[in-house]
Amino acid sequence: MTTQIEIAGRRVGDGEPCYVVAEIGINHNGDLDLARRLVRAAAEAGCDAVKLQKRTPELCVPEAQKALPRETPWGVMSYLEYRRRLELGPDELRAVDACCREHAVAWFASCWDEESVDVVEAFDPPCYKIASASLTDDALLRRHRRTGRPLILSTGMSTLAEIDHAVEVLGRDDLLLLHCTSTYPARLEELNLRAMAALRERYGVPVGYSGHEVGLATTVAAAALGAAMIERHITLDRAMWGTDQAASIEPHGFARLVRDVRAVERAMGDGVKRVYESEIPVREKLRRVAGGGAEG
Fold it and tell me: How far apart are CA 118 and CA 127, in angstroms?
């Protein structure tokens, strides 16, 4: 059973603090300045890492959708041009990499095609995230595994049979699974946080939580249930243009999330029932009868 992996010099998994990832994704809308502002916000909130998405639009956009018109803040354009507009190229990624180094926060990406893995690999990422949408893409799974880096596999919209197959393709070494519900935003009654325990039992690898719900309480609950990693989308403003903004968390909310996750970790303890030194004066003041006597 592989209960820990290592990301950017940190052990992640059983017995370790929850690894908190701010998913920038495409919330930068192709704007480098916005991407850097999101990195800074994530670092200031206390996140361990930020995550981007990388695509080659010519490969990822279905042929039937490429020419469809799309209304955007930059005018009406084809869907293919819109997807190109959202991408950060190698020069922009170098600038994001420098920003992450400046703010001492790790970064990695979910790559939606094999060419994108080649692009991101040049930056020596500490790991890769494989999106739920890519879980059944065996060729892409194998390309990620050939990098030799730790892999984070999201399991949204996937059956157990599909996850079984993906884990078989990837192997269990240096693998972390993320429980996820792939709706944006996700309904509370469909989060099924107890599925994390089922995934840990079935696969014997660290399991975390990737949330798309509105609010923070359920993500904090995931940490209390033992999530090795927490991933939530970050945005500067939930009203901004973009498909993921409404299911994202603004910077002040992300800071509260990290604070509450760390508070839960301190409160969980080791499970051994004991009397604390701080309780003894209260015990002496309030107890009328000393405990420990045998019942006759």
Answer: 13
